[in-house]
Amino acid sequence: MAGTGEGKKEEADYKRLHSFPLIRHTDMPEEMRVETMELCVTACEKFATNNESAAKMIKESMDKKFGSSWHVVIGEGFGFEVTHEVKNLLYMFFGGSLAVCVWKCS
Amino acid sequence: GNGPEDQPELTEDELNEEITRILTANNPHAPQNIARYSFKERSYKPISVVDQMAVLFVLESSLLHEDSDEARRLRVKQGLLKEDGGDVEEAGEEDRPDSSASKADKKEPKLTNQFNFSERASQTLNNPQMERICQTEPPPRNNFSATANQWEIYDAYFQELQKQEKNKEKQKGTQAKKDNDKSKKKVVLTETQTDDLSKVSDASKIFERMVNQNTLDDIAQDFKYFEDASDEFRDQEGTLLPLWKFQFDKSRRLTVTALCWNNKYQDLFAVGMGSYDFRRQGQGMLLFYSMKNSAYPEYIYPTTSGVQCLDIHQQHSHLVAVGFYDGCVAVYSLKQEGQEPVYKSTAKTGKHTDPVWQVCWQNDDMDNNHNFYSVSSDSRVVCWTLVKNELIFTDTIRLSVNGALSNGPEGGHLPTGGTSFDFHNQIDYLFLVGTEKGKIHKCSKTYSSRFLETYDAHTMAVDAVKWNPFHPKVFISCSFDWTVKIWDHTINTPMFTFDLNAAVGDVAWSPYSSTVFAAVTTDGKVHVFDLSINKYEAICQQSVVAKKKTKLTHIEFNPIYPIIIVGDDRGCVTSLKLSPNLRKKPKSKKGQELPKGPEAEVAKMEKLLSLLREPEQSAV
């Protein structure tokens, strides 16, 4: 029992500690990167239960801000290989279990 | 009686006889036997039915019945009658455009005068069409692939947290040092800031030059490529083409008192600013201009006293010796930041008591110290040596009316001020000094007690005296007494005398020919002589000032390019290009004279001199 209690505590710790956005890979310039990251966080928090809506929101905002043809993938597990325009890719983790990939390619 | 002549006369009976005429529909003249080929039956067939109508007279009517259709149509056409829908339909299809036109007319009736109205149409030229296609490079792309799953995400977060913890530990370790660091950081910051500024200043300097070269592109082209073509048709005379003008706002009221080219950077020259008017002495200025940027000086050194003369060191081109009106001499270094001289003479260290008229760098002495000479109105010729951070002076000669005297008692000797000097470029000890009284003394650095020779050169102060750069015996002198004289230092009468009809400010030998020299006069003219072409008159005499009263004060030849710079008393320096006639090569014999340039130049001068000497010697 104690083990499970510890396990729960660990899980809570994990959730708490691992909630921040963690950028895994990006080639965006500083300003754009910060903005995109904040947008992703906002979207994922707003639509915590619906990844599709979150992706849609991110895509649409990015299209408005940085020109069209952005693509967004959000999920807990997926593999991908994409072609993107240089300086327009962001791949990040968020909330301990989500992976967000945002890139531009027209 | 009343009928025609050939009318037969008939009797009463004959007249009363009834003659019956029947009118038929047949034309009696119509042919009755027309045969036509019938294609149907392939043979000629007589045609039974013949056209019986004969037209005797036709007259088109000009009247219409008021109620007829045609009349109505005509009225519609002329817009006299208000048509109704039925009419339009009756008018038929071919009239439709007309009727619609009349509809438009109804709103804004436009009656054209049918007698002088004509329609005219024209077509303008259509601009030729062009097609332009361009293709840009597609934005660069990259591939990226990754796999996201829970354990990857977990690992990534885990690593990140570990890293953060490590950083925290480090920060704790360095906390103590931080305060010190902060102050250091600030210093570093300010340093980088100044670095940034200097970077910008470099870039802006380049930009300034680019802008200037763009705006004055034609001058740069002239400088590089223009050769006065009309020189071919002039026999000997040449012209001067004005190029850049160098003017600085803050020195507008000063006179150009000295010019000197930099030996290492041939586009750079120094300008000394001061005043020759002893009543209007004040501050002076030392400027350095580059031909690459005529709008603004490269270096600016304001001075408390007027600059009277300057010289740039031949080998160490950052060292500039300057003589001032207040008798000081100073050395500026272009490498040094700030606007103060590196060395300056003071009253303690033997400064002149009167204006310094000329300074001249010498070769380094035996201890490898830089040294230069100066001459002043206080009758001293002084050698200054740069030792560490001091200027050490040695009086070389004291000028007097009768003879030289160094450091000795002055009884019986009237001191006389020196105004110019020049050192021999081959014989190290030999130099010439021009004085206020118009005399030129040939002196030696080693014998200070007496002159080697004294020439009664001019009746007024000697403005410039200069050795010929090629011929070791020849020198030139000029004075405010309107004359330029050329001398052989072994003979104490002038070889040539030229009267320029105005006070001569400065004279300079050309660096490319032993027989070419140029002089400037106070009437704003530049005189260029080539003795090998004309021994009596200038081959170019040209006024180069904008305003009539401007006086020219100094002139220098560029050591490489065929241009001269002249300074005037309004603080303006003008560069002029010499036309081809002014820089003719001695002779066009190829392979013989060109490789032995200097010797050929000496020979050329010698030839001229020998022409003058021989009759003299024979006379003696």
UniProtKB/TrEMBL annotation, chain A:
A GO cellular component term found in this entry reads: microtubule
CDD domains (UniProt xref): DLC-like_DNAL4 (cd21453)
SUPFAM superfamilies in UniProt: DLC
State where the protein is found.
Cytoplasm, Cytoskeleton, Cilium axoneme
Cited Pfam families: Dynein_light
UniProt superkingdom: Eukaryota
Keywords of this entry: Cell projection, Cilium, Cytoplasm, Cytoskeleton, Dynein, Microtubule, Motor protein
Report the main location listed first in the record.
cytoplasm
What does the entry give for GO biological process? Answer: microtubule-based process
Q: Which family does it belong to?
A: Belongs to the dynein light chain family.
On subunit structure and binding partners, the annotation says: Consists of at least two heavy chains and a number of intermediate and light chains.
Role of this protein: Force generating protein of respiratory cilia. Produces force towards the minus ends of microtubules. Dynein has ATPase activity.
Protein name per Swiss-Prot or TrEMBL? Dynein light chain
User: Whose protein is this, by species?
Assistant: Menidia menidia
Q: What is the lineage of its organism?
A: Eukaryota, Metazoa, Chordata, Craniata, Vertebrata
Automatic annotation (TrEMBL), chain B:
The entry assigns this protein to a family as follows:
Belongs to the dynein intermediate chain family.
Q: Where are the WD repeats?
A: 455-488
Subunit relationships: Consists of at least two heavy chains and a number of intermediate and light chains. Interacts with BICD2. Interacts with CFAP45 and CFAP52. Interacts with CFAP53.
Regions of compositional bias (Acidic residues) in chain numbering: 86-96
* Entry keyword set: Cell projection, Cytoplasm, Cytoskeleton, Dynein, Microtubule, Motor protein, Repeat, WD repeat
Among the GO biological process terms of this entry, one is:
determination of left/right symmetry
Q: What does this protein do?
A: Part of the dynein complex of respiratory cilia.
Where does the protein end up? Cytoplasm, Cytoskeleton, Cilium axoneme
A Pfam family recorded for this sequence: WD40
The protein in question is named: Dynein axonemal intermediate chain 1
User: Where in the sequence does UniProt note compositional bias of the Basic and acidic residues kind?
Assistant: 164-182
Output the Gene Ontology cellular-component terms: microtubule; outer dynein arm
InterPro entries recorded: Dynein_IC (IPR050687), WD40/YVTN_repeat-like_dom_sf (IPR015943), WD40_repeat_dom_sf (IPR036322), WD40_rpt (IPR001680)
Ranges of biased composition (kind: Polar residues): 111-129
This entry's Gene Ontology molecular function terms read: dynein heavy chain binding; dynein light chain binding
Query: Which organism's genome codes for this protein?
Result: Kryptolebias marmoratus (Mangrove killifish)
Q: Which residues form the signal peptide?
A: none
Region annotation Disordered: residue ranges? Answer: 84-145, 164-188
